Amino acid sequence: MTACRFRLALSLSLLGSGLAGSAGAADLEKFTPKHVAKIQTVTAAAISPDGSKVAYILSVPRKPGLDEDGPAYAELHVVGPDGKSHPYVTGEVNIGEPTWARDGNSILFLAKRGKDEHRSLYKIDADGGEARKVVAFGSDITAFALKADGKRLAFLATEPDSKAKLDQKKKGFSQILFEEEIPPTRLWLATIDSPKTPTEIKLVGSASELRVNPVGEQVALALAPTPSVDDNFMKRKVCVTLAGPAGLVRFENQGKLGKVVFSPDGKYLAMITAADINDPAAGRLVIGEVETGTMKDVLPGYEGHVADIAWSDPDTVAFVGDEGTGTVIGTVNADGSSLSSTPTAPLVVTSFSIAGNGRTAALVAQSPKHPSEVFRAEIGDGFKPTRLTDSNPWFAGMEFAPQEEVTYKARDGLSLQGILIRPLGVEAGKKVPLVLDVHGGPESHVKNGWVTGYSLPGQVLAAKGVAVFLPNYRGSTGRGVAFSKLSQGDPAGKEFDDLIDAVDHFVNNGLADRSKVGVTGGSYGGYATAWCSTRYSDRFAAGVMFVGISDKISKTGTTDIPDEEYLVHARRRPWDDWQALLEHSPIYHVDKARTPLLILHGKEDPRVFPGQSLELYRFLKIRGQAPVRLVLYPGEGHGNLRAASRYDYNLRMIAWFDHYLLGKGGTMPPGEVAY
User: What is the spatial distance between Cα 72 and Cα 77, in angstroms, rounded to a whole number?
Assistant: First the structure.
């Protein structure tokens, strides 16, 4: 990147007693699963047009074993520049899409409250008070965007079920025509507080990424040919419409698609797209002309991934870029000129929102010492973010293990990065157990921010004296398109050799005890765990596999994203080379398995069918060469959402590694968990 037009001087303003100091070292607590289960996190933030307030969503987990089980609640709060936060809609709620009215006098949001049958649009005054429903519909409203007059809006929802359909369901006719009855998401127009029935804008396809022209009547959205997950991943096209198909301007964006935003003057659309149909992730910043549909990549060859975008003026786009294990905030003109950026370390910025003046921004950012919080910043010279929220004041009484970026070499000379959490309370020079925590995707990457969660052992294992390393192996994002394609067509090949090379790096530098290395991960990280516990079993003393892949052939035949699997991962169909897929499957190598393996999976997972875990479990159980346990979570999909499922997972994972890396090993730990 070029020299920075504005610089980032990260002098964080620590507001409130929870941030101002820390307890003495002897009084500090170490992280345990109980601590992880109560962590609150900011998930979204929207700054008011005048920049005076920030509306944000706070994810509040339920208390396992005490509250009625379910996913975390999503509350609406508002914070001012003084750091004083006020609860607006809290408790047993699930708030989404917080959006300021154009005059800044109110906040609109989506929620299903009280006797609502479906998710509706609500409005609350900027100063608080009671929220009221302003638009309801016969199915869930999934997204909305206000027109320039502030009263009319466009929204997305599926067509409501007919009375005949509802009557059939009541009579027990609940059969499913697999993948044929998924309702497409449609575009509707409505007026706030109007009794009139919303009007559908007839378009071909299933809609997402809704935006309205801030100075006109145009609506921008993305259309997928069908509502399938696969088409939503790979085939969405950005369109601008005035009143239906006749007025449709279609952009020829390729492959995966991220955020889409109108410029303040309505002439351009900024969008985050893929470079081509085989690009694993949307990360290119493209500017499209609304009238013509022409497009231009304004960051050609960018060796990072654009994560978020917002216009700062009619000719300038601000962006958050993922670069390596960190992030940058940058700006670029709509024609691709005047590029500037600056690193945000020690913060990792995940999203931002810019006020009407084009300078004042609300950031959602995290660090190795805290999950995502709200920060305020003035974009320009002397840029100094100020922390506004402290969602976990009890963190002041916690002891944190040191965390750092590590660079190491793969066996073929490729330079790789990752995040290391060093163990607490271990004398210098002593070799310690090491756990590799492998991210999924693989079109994802680990940043040097908050890396502890219900499925991420992070600070919890470090508190027990275990080092944890989160590698960004080849195929990860954050280093440009070419790097993210390095693993294509070679599953479990060099990408997973990179994991073994990471182990060797820490063994050779004296940190890791070679006989006490563990591995864990979910989804593609679960695939890595299964591979390391079979093909490379001689290198690993314990594994914890989550929603992972064990059979590449049957996985392709049971997943809801077969085209995505083909286009950005396998680059061939199973029938092109059955044997190759079989040999790259962990089940093919169960004869080598000696690693005690804990397998966990959601019973309703549509992405990686739970049969993947059952198949590996059964083969390992029959051979009887190593301890193996399978835990299924009813009602959970590709990752656990409910508080009890998350807490149970975290307890089992930590106990498994405790037993096999720190304890006596041998026979499996008890199956019953002391909650």
Answer: 15
Taking CA 52 as the corner, what is the angle to CA 46 and CA 55, rounded to the nearest 5 degrees?
30
pLDDT in tens, 111-128: 999 999 999 999 999 999
List pLDDT tens digits, range 181-225. 899 999 999 999 999 999 999 999 999 999 999 998 999 999 999
- Please state the domain extents for the chain: 28-136+347-385, 139-154+183-247, 251-343, 401-662
360-367 and 348-354 as β-strands: parallel, antiparallel, unpaired? antiparallel
Q: pTM here?
A: 0.94
**Rounded-to-integer distance, Cα 648 and Cα 674, Å:** 9
Architecture of domain 28-136+347-385: Beta Barrel (2.40)
Cα–Cα distance measured from residue 110 to residue 97, given in angstroms and rounded to the nearest whole number: 6
Give the pair of three-digit tokens for residue 329.
């905030």
Q: Specify which residues 546 forms β-bridges with.
A: 522, 600
Task: Report the top-level CATH class of 251-343.
Answer: mainly beta
Class of domain 401-662: alpha beta
In sequence order, the 6+-apart residues with CB closer than 8 A to the CB of 285 are 270, 271, 272, 297, 298, 299, 302, 306, 309, 317, 319, 332
Residue whose tokens read 């064990």: 550
Q: Quick check: do 28-136+347-385 and 251-343 share a fold?
A: yes
Give the Cα separation of 578 and 439 in Å (integer): 27
- Report the DSSP pairing between strands 467-472 and 432-438: parallel
Q: How far apart are CA 570 and CA 341, in angstroms?
A: 35
